[in-house]
Specification:
heterodimer, A: alpha/beta, FAD/NAD(P)-binding domain, 3 domains, five-stranded parallel beta sheet, B: alpha/beta, Elongation Factor Tu (Ef-tu), domain 3, Rossmann fold, 2 domains, 9 helices, 16 strands, 34% helix, binds flavin-adenine dinucleotide, binds iron/sulfur cluster, binds FE2/S2 (inorganic) cluster
Chain lengths: 499, 288
């Protein structure tokens, strides 16, 4: 599929003046037609062809003070890698990205770019930011498809070992960096597959599992040991891990599903988003009965919530064959926390947005199966603490919608299992997060570090990855010096990579 | 790890498995369970740890074949491996010295009742076990229970063994003739646990039941196992599986257990058909 690169065209583009560059249109990414993709779980966008990537990369005016980099939580050298793509040097591009971002094929797909790097791009003001995410994805895919993804070099054996709890993006990243520094690393994972939310939560049509597996392969090739089916807090405690390891990293994520405490919420056919997505992604219920795990065969399904998770559920339900998929959200479309691209995709696929609606109870039939959701309509009032206008109930607006399935996708809290079973580990009583110094990634317990969703509550893949990197530096410092009581990492340990 | 060392038929469609799982064997406490996935295509099925031998590094599972996965499990032979075994899961049964404990177990529930009876006994209680089965050929683990408890009363629905009738009758008789036990622990089919709890509520006897809602991850991540306890939602896999029987919404539990009936039927029938056609092929090959 590698298109011949047109060297003359590359040359011509390369010599454009800034003004001319700014006239190039943002390059669209080809994708499956809505009618086609409604019926399959394959990835929706196909990714850029090489020449489109080069044209897109040429839109970047190589700012002296690149604001885009500030918008990226891990500070990817964006002009640096984009310039290499513009030159047709894709291998060079991926090397620049990987200096700071270990999971570019994943981040290029799932980062909320329009709130991060792309929002901060100078061209964003005209609504035409450089498609940084798509370019990042392009470079990473190109590397993988050409079999060039190399295993990072491993440092000389330090004789130290670290236990990592959880194999989500935080755990995988910390493991890679610690191996680079020469420590022995064991990951303990509760489920039978690695990747955390990347594997069980985010659907295949947004993040192919082959990509997650490729990243995990790298981790394993580096000599990281992954013990599956190992739930820390049940089979062993963190204290026991500390007997065996010199340090422990907690990357257990935010996997506790919230419900709304509404009447009828435990009726049959009312799912949490986690359950619905896990059945489908991890357990492959979409391929039932080839796979044993069942999922509701829904005709009319209501998804409650307005974030990425709700979009993933709604679009999964479409693919599972539901005829009507309602997305019930209590504010208006402008306030939806989901990525614009996902909302757009969901609408294209026929998801019906019930905006300014809120469920108040679920009604069941004589078998205890949900058959209706009772909603109220909402109005937007004064702005609340989040700056968004607070939704208020319209009196007397109760009405019912006929459904056979409901999925509650209003968010997740940190999984309490590890906090509950670990002595002297300070936990934020309100949010359930493990109290973590975000500079050193230290917890209140000596030798125990944390990062990702367990430290900050449900956030993003790139943030979890950034935490993982920072924690690795801090663990390197701790293992080298034995010094625990610091609030900030010394200069020498702030470098990327092995530290 | 996860190797099946023994697979013995205990009664009609009930098998006992000895599985190599050293870490779990060393760790588990009465009332805890594992989640098993048989193969690549398998679902995650929860099974109580009926016994464990920390020295040999084995756990015992007693499983009734009720559908596709459990029927498939019954075909496994010593030397085969379960793909995944994760545990120990759930909170251990709360064991205290209270005096006399009636452990009431029905059908396959006798398997999970066994370690609980052992633990109550070890804590210094007098343990009376009431075991119920539909009929004699379905009764399991009577000998083990006789070793674990001070006294065992057996009853069968059809009167083919022990006293005729249901465990609730036996428990009621026991209370009438010998006074109230200090505590009841009940495990078995949901209707049985429901009626035991209704009975003991009348007498004001503290009662624990072990619930078995449909589970998936067993880590508190999906909420599929939620049950209503005294009007509050609990996740049975981490906050249970034991709960105060007087507070459980048993009817909701029964409905939730039946949610996938149709799919379960499809999966089972397909499985049986496949087994048959494989047998056909094997026979055909043999006759060639
Ligand atoms: C449906 C969905 C869609 C999302 N979409 C996006 C998106 O588009 N873009 C984006 O940036 N972010 C998205 N997110 C958020 C993002 O996935 C998370 O912020 C990120 O995965 C957090 O990483 P983590 O490593 O902290 O934890 P997780 O990915 O949650 O991984 C934690 C791991 O720890 C394991 N674990 C938990 N407890 C234990 C224990 N006691 N013992 C052993 N192992 C344990 C878990 O099984 C899991 O594998 C989405 C989240 C969901 C749920
Ligand atoms: C904590 C706990 C401990 C258990 N211990 C034992 C035990 O020691 N021995 C034993 O024989 N059985 C036990 N069970 C029940 C056992 O898990 C189910 O019988 C088994 O999952 C059925 O799978 P199947 O494919 O063979 O049957 P299916 O045809 O899939 O289901 C038959 C019935 O089993 C129940 N069931 C189905 N899937 C699940 C699931 N994932 N989780 C829970 N229940 C399910 C449903 O009520 C269903 O109607 C336990 C269940 C729980 C929750
Ligand atoms: S990691 Fe995410 S935020 Fe950073 S440059 Fe890449 S896509 Fe943008
Ligand atoms: S801000 Fe935009 S134009 Fe400027 S360097 Fe970054 S990507 Fe390029
Ligand atoms: S089985 Fe998923 S939360 Fe209990």
């Amino acid at each position: 599929m590698d298109q011949e690169l047109d060297r003359n065209e590359i040359e011509r583009l390369y010599n454009l003046k800034a003004k001319e560059r700014m006239q190039i249109e943002r390059q669209p990414m080809p994708e499956q037609e809505p009618d086609v993709r409604r019926a399959n779980f394959s990835e929706v966008p196909f990714g850029y062809f090489p020449m489109a990537a080069i044209v897109e990369a040429n839109r970047c005016i190589q700012c002296k003070k690149p604001t885009c980099v500030i918008g990226c939580p891990v500070g990817v050298n964006i002009p640096g890698f984009v310039r290499r793509i513009a030159e047709g040097d894709f291998e060079g591009a991926i090397h620049v990205i990987k200096e700071t971002n270990m999971l570019p094929a994943i981040c290029g797909r799932v980062c909320p770019q329009e709130q991060q790097c792309e929002e901060a791009c100078v061209l964003a003001k005209k609504g035409q930011a450089v498609a940084i995410g798509r370019l990042e994805r392009f470079a990473a895919d190109w590397e993988r498809e050409h079999g060039l993804a190399d295993v990072p070099p491993i440092g000389a054996d330090t004789g130290k070992s670290v236990g990592v709890v959880g194999s989500g993006p935080a755990g995988l990243t910390v493991a890679i960096d610690l191996r680079r520094a020469g420590h022995a690393v064991t990951i303990y994972e509760a489920l039978h597959l690695p990747g955390g939310v990347l594997m069980y939560g985010i659907p295949e049509f947004r993040l192919p599992k082959a990509i997650v597996n490729a990243e995990v392969d790298v981790v394993q090739q580096m000599g990281v040991d992954i013990e599956y089916n190992t739930i820390i807090g049940q089979i062993e405690t963190v204290d026991e891990l500390l007997d065996r390891h010199d340090a422990v990293f907690l990357g257990t994520g935010a996997g506790l599903p919230w419900f709304m405490d509404l009447p009828g919420e435990n009726l049959c056919g009312v799912y949490s988003a986690n359950e619905y997505l896990t059945r489908c992604n991890l357990m492959r219920a979409y391929d039932f009965p080839n796979y044993d795990t069942p999922i509701a065969a829904s005709e009319r399904i209501a998804v409650v919530g307005g974030g990425n998770v709700a979009m993933d559920v709604a679009r999964t339900a479409v693919r599972l064959g539901a005829e009507e998929v309602y997305l019930i959200y209590r504010r208006s479309e402008a306030e939806m926390p989901a990525r614009l691209e996902e909302i757009h995709h969901a609408k294209q696929e026929g998801v019906i947005l019930k905006l300014l609606h809120n469920p108040v109870r679920y009604i069941g039939d004589e078998q205890g199966r949900v058959c209706q959701v009772e909603c109220v309509r909402m109005e937007l009032g004064e702005p609340d603490a989040s700056g968004r206008r607070r939704p208020v109930v319209v009196e007397g607006s109760e009405h019912t919608i006929d459904v056979d399935t409901v999925v509650v996708a209003i968010g997740n809290g940190p999984n309490p299992l590890v906090p509950r079973t670990t002595d002297n580990l300070e936990v934020d009583p309100k949010r359930g997060t493990v109290v973590t110094n975000l500079n050193t990634m230290r917890t209140s317990k000596r030798g125990v570090f944390a990062g990702g969703d367990i430290a900050v509550g449900a956030a993003t893949v790139i943030l979890a990855m950034g935490h993982g990197r920072q924690a690795a530096r801090s663990i390197n410092h701790f293992l080298a010096t034995g010094v625990w009581d610091i609030d900030e990492l010394p200069e020498a340990f702030r470098e990327n990579g092995a530290g | 790890m996860n190797e099946i060392l023994e697979n013995v038929v205990l009664a009609d469609s009930v098998n006992r498995y000895l599985v190599a799982a050293p870490k779990i064997a060393a760790r588990r406490k009465a009332g805890q369970f594992v989640i098993v996935r048989i193969d690549e295509f398998g679902e995650r099925i929860p099974l109580t740890i009926a016994d464990a031998d920390p020295e040999q590094g084995t756990i015992t599972l007693v499983v009734q074949a009720v559908g596709k996965s459990t029927a498939q499990m019954a075909t496994l032979k010593p030397g085969d491996r379960l793909l995944d075994v994760v545990g120990p899961l759930g909170a251990p049964t709360h064991i205290e010295r209270v005096g006399t404990v009636a452990v009431v177990a029905g059908g396959i529930g006798i398997a999970p009742a066994h370690p609980v009876a052992q633990a109550f006994k070890q804590a210094g209680n007098t343990v009376i076990a009431i075991l119920g089965a539909r009929s004699k050929n379905l009764l399991i683990m009577e000998d083990e229970m006789r070793r674990a408890a001070d006294e065992v009363i057996v009853c069968t629905d059809d009167g083919s063994y022990g006293c005729p009738g249901l465990v609730t009758h036996v428990l009621n008789d026991l209370i009438d003739t010998r006074g109230k036990p200090d505590q009841v622990f009940a495990v078995g089919p949901v209707p049985m646990m429901k009626y035991v709890s209704l009975l003991t509520r009348e007498y004001g006897i503290p009662t624990m039941v072990s619930l078995n809602p449909i589970m998936m991850d067993g880590t508190g991540m999906c909420g599929g196992c939620r049950v209503t306890i005294g009007g509050h939602t609990k996740f049975a896999c981490v906050e249970g599986p034991d709960f105060d029987g007087h507070l459980v919404d048993f009817d909701e539990l029964m409905q939730r257990q039946a949610f996938y009936k149709e799919q379960e039927r499809v999966a089972y029938e397909r499985y049986v058909q496949r087994c048959r056609s494989q047998e056909h092929i094997a026979q055909a090959n043999q006759s060639l």
